[in-house]
Design a protein that fits this description.
Blueprint: E1 4-7, E2 10-12, E3 18-24, E4 34-40, E5 47-52, E6 58-60, E7 68-73, E8 78-83, E9 92-102, E10 105-110, E11 114-118
Parallel strand pairs: 2-11
Antiparallel strand pairs: 1-3, 3-8, 4-5, 4-9, 5-6, 7-8, 9-10, 9-11
């Protein structure tokens, strides 16, 4: 079992910045996890925002390219999402996700989410 705890959400004005953190409980093997941030707005499907693999390859949704940056600190069992130039349409619950495989078994874990509200 992996517990993921997000933090850093809140209310910010358009153009502002937030830094989300996701801390994983299973730190001994955190380095093998593929990590990602998703978000979900009311009435919308959960969608990928940014991902970072165990070997530090990154991928971003087109809507956040150039504004958001995902990173990880394996020594701290933590993945970050730096969000700059925030827009009202970024408003959503942001969820941390971890995936990994051991032999034929697949593991997929989600955090509880943290609310990000961008409003003037």
């Amino acid at each position: 079992q992996v517990q993921l705890v997000e933090s850093g959400g809140g209310l910010v004005q358009p153009g502002g910045s937030l830094r989300l953190s996701c801390a994983a409980s299973s730190g001994r093997i955190f380095s093998i996890y593929d990590m990602a941030w998703y978000h979900q707005a009311p009435g919308k499907q959960r969608e990928l925002v940014a991902a970072i693999t165990s070997d530090n390859r990154t991928n971003y949704a087109d809507s956040v390219k150039g504004r958001f940056s995902i990173s990880r600190d394996n020594a701290k069992n933590t993945v970050y999402l730096q969000m700059n130039s925030l827009k009202p349409e970024d408003t959503a619950v942001y969820y941390c996700n971890a995936k990994y495989k051991i032999l034929l078994r697949k593991y997929n874990y989600w955090g509880q989410g943290t609310q990000v509200t961008v409003s003037s």
